[in-house]
Each structure stands twice: as C-alpha cells, then as structure tokens.
Amino acid sequence: MKPQVILIEDDDALRLSLAQTLDIEGISVIQADGLVQAKRAIRANFAGVILSDIRMPHHDGFDVLAHVKDTDPDLPVVLLTGEADVPMALRAMKEGAYDFLEKPCATETLLKVLHRALSHRSLITQTRQLEQKIRHSDAASVNFPGKTPASKNLRSNLRRVAPLPVHVHLFGPRGVGKKLAAYTIHNLSQDRDVNLAINLQDAGSDEIATLKVPDVPCDLSLKNVELAGAAQQADLLALIKAHPNLRVILSSIHSMDYLLKRGFSEELFSILNLVEINVPTLKRRRDDLPVLFEGFARHTARALNTDMPQVPQSVYANVMAKDWNGNLPELRNYARTIVLGLSVRKHTPQELTLAQQMDAFEKMVLSETLKRNKGKAVDTAKSLGLPRKTFYDRLARYDLRPKDFKPKDPQ
Q: Which residue ranges does the record assign to the Response regulatory domain (predicted)?
C-alpha cells in the first residue's frame, strides 16, 4: 500500500504543486482546501500523516492540529507556514505537531520529514494492530467477552495473574464461570503445559494424596474447595510443600474470609498466600448479555451444524429483562432453545422496574441499529426516525459510541 498524506492547503496552485511533488515520490495524496473538507479523511485508523498550512481562513493549522489530536493523539501533523517565527514554532511543537517547516521549503527537506513521519506512523499502526490482535484473540477475551467494567476488570485480573508464580482463589456463585476462569489462567500461562483438575464434589478422600504431579511447572485446578475436609486440606498442604513448581487454582462459591470462618486451615491459607479474584455474576455484566447470548447461540448452531437463525429484537429484549440467577448455564440453555426453534415462554423480570426494562430495550435497539449501519451515526438516526440532537442525547445516556460499532480493519 502506498504511503498516504492528507494535504491541507487553501492556495489551489500551491496545493496542486505539492501534490504533484509527493505523487512523483510515490506518496498518495488526499487534497483538502481546509479543515472542513479534510475532516472526511481524518480518522483514528488513518495510516498516513497530515501536512497542513498554518495561515488559512476560517480554520488555521492549529485548529487542524487540535482536531487531529482529538481524533488520534498519535497521528503525526507537519505544519507549513510562510511567516515563521520562534513563538509560533514553539507553540506548534508544544501543542503536539510532529514538525514545523517554513515555506518555501526545499523538496528534499520536506520529503525527508514526511518519510520520517510516515515511518513513525507505520510503527504505531503496526503496534496497535498487534496489541488489538492479542487482546481479541487471547483466552480472556474469547472466554469473557463484553464491555462492562465487571468483564473488563475480570479479564485484566486473569491476564495479570496468569504469568505469576502465585496461587489463586476464584470465587463467586454457581455458574459464573469459575472453571472457565481457571482454564483461562492456565491457557494464558506460557510456562505451564500441564493442567491437573480435581472436583472435590466427586473426589475420593485420597485423590489429592495420590495425585501424580510431574516435576515441571504445572497447574492444579481444585474445584468446590468449600467441600474440602480436614484430611484433604492436609493432603493439599503436603502436596504444595513437595512440589514447589505446582500452582494451585482454587475455586469456590465463597470468599476465603468466609471459608476461614468455617474452618479452612489457617496453615494452608498462610502457605498458599492466595490472590483472590471474584468472578462476577451476569447481573453485574448485564450490558454484556446480548453479546454473551449471541456467542452461545452461534456456538450451538456450529455444534449442531445448522444455520444461525435470525433472532428477533423481542428475544434480545427478553434476554436483557431477566436476572439470570442461574448465570451462564441458564443463558446458554436459553440460547440453545432459540437456535433449535423451540417455543419458549417469555421470562418474567424479577427485579427490574418498568423504566429499567424500557431503558434496556432502548439501549439494545440503538446498539443493534448502529451495528446494522456499521457505526454510521447519520444513517442510524435516520433509520430510527430521530432528530440528530435526540439521537446523540440517547447515545450519551447509554454510553454508546458509534465508532465502537464500525467494522474492524482487517489485520
């Protein structure tokens, strides 16, 4: 792909001359006679740089610089002026200009600065793409999708503890995904190929004591630790002392404070020196429900080798209106029912007021319409029959941003 420059110059003859110079150099030029015209091309994922005159009517180069920095702080802006002075140059650099050149500028100097800026921009975009690919493909993002603070915090905590040689305690009500969280921690660990698992609900009295632990860094996932008796806790303590490379990932429905009050071994607790992570319920991830439901539905469709059905908005409204006290298994089963096309009774909201249900439905409609229109705010407002101000007021109310619904750039 050819390097790109957005050239902003109000002098038609000079703009054409600069464009021809850059074109000869193999640089693709997007021409604009001012900021208003340039706004169509300036975007956060623009792969090139901005070359702008300072002295222009209506909006000068500093207005351009301010708009670019609001759009993408890392997008380089090179400013040109025919009346350079030290205070202006200092202001330009202070406000974030990549470079400041005086007209007339030698072609060699201009091209040198632009190529340097383009290389800088290329490095930034490559780094962003890599970070985005990692974020969207790691086990934390795949297993716990969503934009709520609870989901973001959980993903952050799982990623943070994964590479550390610390024991972990995952707690939360049944069905929130503690087993999945334990798997996620192991999956994100680069030095632990072995993952052992024991469910104390089904385990025999000597299962921990007879466990064969390889002499390599490995994980032991111990589920339903609230059921561990004194003998099993003693066996676990001996196992940890005998295998320093063993990391234990405990999970239970209660916090460790609660378990200690109910007789959990203080010696074992002291040896473990646990990092605790609370796995949130679906109530705390309410705004993620449509994403989670759709993920379960698509997984079911793939598993059954059937087409993903067209899901009516009434189903999404139903999803948003229910509390899902059964958490992930309950939502997964509902998604399976919808994919199979079975008749289901609408859920009766358990704790949401009418206003809360209406808000949930309105937010879902806005989100789905933005998604259909690929994040185009004007088209979305038009299709919903809303005046622009009302539309943007609604977006602000529900913390929705059109750019979040735009298709991702191909990696």
A: 4-118
Do residues 290 and 262 share a domain? no
| Residue 410, preceding peptide bond in cis (omega within 30° of 0) | no
75 in a structural domain? yes
At 137, is the secondary structure helix, strand, or coil?
helix
Identify whether residues 161 and 201 lie together within a single domain.
yes
Distance CA 369, CA 359 (A): 15
How far apart, in Å, are the Cα atoms of 357 and each of 147, 233, 286, 351, 399? 20, 46, 12, 10, 17
Whether residue 411 is contained in a domain is answered as no
Domain count, the chain: 3
How much is the pLDDT for 373?
Answer: 86
Name the nearest CA neighbour of 79 among 69, 187, 179.
69
Shared-domain flag, residues 261 and 162? yes
Instruction: Return the pLDDT at 410.
Output: 44
pLDDT attached to residue 136: 57
In a domain, 174, yes or no: yes
Q: What is the residue-wise DSSP string for 297-348?
A: HHHHHHHTT-PPP---HHHHHHHHH---TTHHHHHHHHHHHHHTT---PPPP
pLDDT of residue 285: 95
Burial track 360-375 (b if 16+ CB lie within 10 A, e otherwise): bbebbebbbbbeebeb
- Diameter over CA atoms, the chain: 88
- Two tokens, residue 258: 């609660």
Helices (H), 222-288: 230-242, 256-261, 266-272
Q: Residue 120 carries which side chain, given as an amino acid letter?
A: H
- Its domain, for residue 217, covers 140-280
The Cβ of residue 393 has, within 10 Å, a number of other Cβ atoms equal to 11
Q: Are residue 308 and residue 208 in the same domain, yes or no?
A: no
Among 84, 108, 134, where does a domain finish?
134
Ranges of residues in the chain with a pLDDT under 50 are 343-350, 410-411
268 and 148 together in one domain = yes
How do 246-252 and 218-223 pair as beta strands? parallel
Residue 121 is predicted with a pLDDT of 92
State the first-to-last Cα distance of the chain, in angstroms, to the nearest integer: 14
270 and 295 inside one domain: no
Asked whether the beta carbons of 49 and 121 are under 8 A apart, the reply is: yes
Q: Is residue 196 part of a domain?
A: yes
